[in-house]
Amino acid sequence: MHTHDDHTAVWRLIDSGPLSGVENMAIDEALLRCFDPASSRPTLRLYGWQPAALSLGRFQKAADDLDLERCRADQLSVVRRITGGGAIYHADELTYSLVCAPSQIPPAASVKDSFRVLTSFLLGLYRALGLQADYAVDLAPAGSRLGQRTPLCFAGTESYDIMVNGRKLGGNAQRRSRGVIFQHGSIPLHNRVQQGLRYLKNKPLGVEQGSTSLADQGIGADVEQLKQALVGQFQAQLGATLQTSDLTAEERALSRRLAADKYGEDRWNLEGDEP
């Protein structure tokens, strides 16, 4: 049995910088696939999106939800995530992904509870930046309905969505396989929801009014300073130590293969068929 002292886990910190949607999703999946709960160190990865891209949730139907002709005309890259949820337009954001075993984080009673544990660093970050940030579930009046599904990720309110002044700031998604937790999420520097809506067939009502960004909240985010603040909060909230690191040779090789054979192909991105 792990004792709580184990949670001063040493995590790898991988700063990928800005990459294409194909490269980003390939690296995220490689991190998950190469992770061995018995021997791997937990990992926090930070990255950006260059150029902008649109990601679909694992089970979305591209043809149903996207204006594919407009995506093609604008040469917008569409990639499919390994996590659920709706379409997300990625531009001007700091994104994180993490992979760990449940024993490597402070004890959580349930999957839902682990989501609170694993987004606590974001809440800490936003509060440190001077924002009044709270989980939707902590603001919700008793009996209100959270978690209604919508085609655009940022339209629906989930329990652990982070809210600032009544608006959703970013989005986070988690999946589990083989006793491994994988999670990724976004910190919007500028609000690009309006641009993203152009690529959706059905534009959900209220999503523009319902989402926000750091710039909207008066925070001019210097990305490097933001990363440092995030790292500080991650270490504080999770009782972790972060050590700057690189992808292993195995992770790099697998991510290259996934970029070529999976995330570079419409079969996966648009149809959701595994190669």
Second rung of CATH, namely the architecture: 2-Layer Sandwich
Task: Trace the largest sheet across and list its strands.
Answer: 10-11-6-2-1-13
Biggest beta sheet attributes? 6 strands, mixed
- Cα-based radius of gyration, to the nearest Å: 18 Å
Low-pLDDT parts are 1-7, 149-157
Question: What's the helical proportion of residues?
Answer: 25-40%
Overview of the structural elements:
By secondary structure, the protein is α/β, with parallel strands linked by helices. It has a single domain, classed as 2-Layer Sandwich (BirA Bifunctional Protein, domain 2). It contains ten helices and 13 strands. A six-stranded mixed beta sheet has the order 10-11-6-2-1-13. The chain has a four-stranded mixed beta sheet with strand order 7-8-9-12. Strands 4-3-5 form a three-stranded mixed beta sheet. Helix 1 crosses helix 9 and helix 4 crosses helix 8. The N terminus is likely disordered.
